[in-house]
Amino acid sequence: MKSPKPGSNECPAEELKPKDSIGDSGLASLARIAAALERIADKQDYLASCADDSIDLLKELNQEFSSFSRHGFGM
């Protein structure tokens, strides 16, 4: 086996071979990662919905304030 030169980024060819399997613990880790990503996506959907509701409420508040101001109560 050829050793890499000091300071180089070379790896011996044996270290570059792909592994046959990530194993059960690797699959379990990937499943937990996937589940966490799904929860994040769900939270993002929920937060987007809340933002839409907030925008609608702010528009309604702006309309009410405009109406209030037009009637001279804001002076």
Describe the structure concisely.
This protein is mainly α and 75 residues long.
Please give a structural write-up.
This protein is mostly helical and 75 residues long. It has a domain at 31-69. 64% of the residues lie in helices and 0% in strands. It contains one helix and no strands. It has one helix at residues 23-70. The longest helix is centred in the middle third of the chain and has 48 residues, at 23-70. The radius of gyration is 29 Å and the shape is elongated. 0% of the residues are buried.
Helix/strand-derived category reads: mainly alpha
Number of strands: 0
Strand-residue proportion: under 5%
Distance between the termini: 87 Å
Report the mean per-residue pLDDT as an integer.
Answer: 82
SSE pattern, N- to C-terminal = H
Quick one: overall form? Answer: elongated
The helical percent reads 55-70%
- Let me know the largest β-sheet: none
Task: Give a quick set of tags describing it.
single chain, 75 residues, mainly alpha, 1 helix, 64% helix, elongated
List the helices and strands and how they pair.
Elements: H1 23-70
